[in-house]
Write a structure and sequence with these properties.
By secondary structure, this protein is an alpha/beta fold. It contains twelve helices and eleven strands. The chain is globular and about 55 Å long.
Length: about 280
C-alpha cells in the first residue's frame, strides 16, 4: 500500500525520517513515498486532504480537523524556545505593533502565536528561507524566523526582539507546540495504527543512531555546520517527538483554547490523537 508522507526538507525532519528513508526501519506492508515541501505548502495541501500522512503546523489543524487525526509521534515542541522575531536594531515588544513583520505564512503556528502575543500587526508573507534577507535588505522592518534562522540570524548582524517559546513558557508553564504529523481519516484503523508504529520506529531509530542520522540531516542543513545542525536537531527532535504524552497534549489543547479566546482561531478545536 502506497503512503505518501509529506514533510519539510529540513534537518530535523530529515533526521527523524532517516531510518525510514534509508530502509533501516521496517515499513511494514507499506511503500512510503517521501514528499518534501515547505510547511506552508503542506498546510495548504492538508486542507484538500492530498497526502495520507503529512507534517502540518498545528495552527493549520483547525482547518483540517475533519480530514485528519493527529499522530502522537514526530511532533515539534519547543521547551522554553521557539520561533523568534528579529530586526536590524533593538526594539521593544510594543514597537512590533507599529511596523511590518515578514512572516513565513499565515497557516504557521509561529504566526498564530505571534498574533496571540501582539494582537493585530502589519505583516507580509515571505518564504521562510528568505525572511532574513528581507530584514537585512530593509524591505521588512522585522522578521519572524522558524527553522534554522533561529540559530543563524546573528551571523547577519540581526537582533533578537522576541522569543515566542520563552513567552509561551512564561504564560503557560508548558512547552510550545509547533508542528505535528497528521493521518488522513479515511485510512482504516489497522492501517492507521501500523503507520503510527512505523513513525515511532523511525524517530526511535534516529535517536538510537544519532551520528548516522545527523550525517543524513546535514544534506538539508542549508549552510549550517555540523555543530549548529546538531543543536537544531536536538531542539526539535526530543522526547516529545518520540511520544507526545499528556503534558504535550495538554499544551496543544491549550494552544487551541487560548487561540480561540484571543479571536485568532475562528472555530472551537478539540484535537484528536491516534491512540
Amino acid at each position: 500500500m502506497l503512503i505518501r508522507l509529506g514533510h519539510s526538507p529540513d534537518p530535523d525532519d530529515a533526521f527523524m525520517f532517516w531510518g525510514l528513508a534509508s530502509g533501516e526501519v521496517d515499513p511494514r506492508q507499506f511503500e512510503f513515498e517521501h514528499v518534501l515541501r515547505d510547511i506552508q505548502t503542506l498546510n495548504t495541501w492538508a486542507i484538500d486532504g492530498k497526502l495520507e500522512v503529512s507534517a502540518i503546523s498545528l495552527a493549520a489543524y483547525p482547518l483540517v480537523q475533519e480530514n485528519y487525526v493527529l499522530l502522537p509521534h514526530g511532533a515539534s515542541m519547543g521547551s522554553g524556545y521557539g520561533p523568534i522575531v528579529v530586526a536590524r536594531e533593538e526594539l521593544a515588544l510594543s514597537d512590533l505593533r507599529n511596523i511590518e513583520i515578514a512572516i513565513p505564512g499565515e497557516l504557521t503556528t509561529a504566526f498564530l502565536v505571534l498574533r496571540m502575543c501582539l494582537g493585530q500587526f502589519r505583516y507580509r508573507a515571505v518564504p521562510f528561507d528568505q525572511i532574513i534577507e528581507e530584514v537585512t535588505s530593509g524591505r521588512s522592518d522585522a522578521g519572524l524566523l522558524i527553522h534554522e534562522g533561529q540559530l543563524t540570524y546573528r551571523e547577519q548582524k540581526l537582533q533578537k526582539v522576541h522569543d515566542l517559546g520563552e513567552w509561551w513558557k512564561m504564560e503557560t508553564g508548558l512547552p510550545l507546540p509547533l508542528g505535528g504529523n497528521a493521518l488522513r481519516r479515511d485510512l482504516d484503523k489497522e492501517t492507521a495504527r501500523k503507520c503510527c508504529d512505523v513513525l515511532r520506529d523511525t524517530v526511535q531509530y534516529a535517536l538510537d543512531h544519532r551520528k548516522e542520522a545527523l550525517d543524513y540531516a546535514l544534506e538539508y542543513a542549508r549552510g549550517m555546520d555540523r555543530k549548529k545542525a546538531d543543536k537544531f536537531v536536538g531542539m526539535y527532535v526530543n522526547s516529545y517527538t518520540l511520544e507526545l504524552g499528556k503534558r504535550a497534549e495538554d499544551a496543544i489543547e491549550l494552544l487551541f483554547k487560548l487561540g480561540k479566546q484571543a479571536g485568532v482561531i475562528p472555530v472551537k478545536v478539540v484535537p484528536e490523537f491516534i491512540e
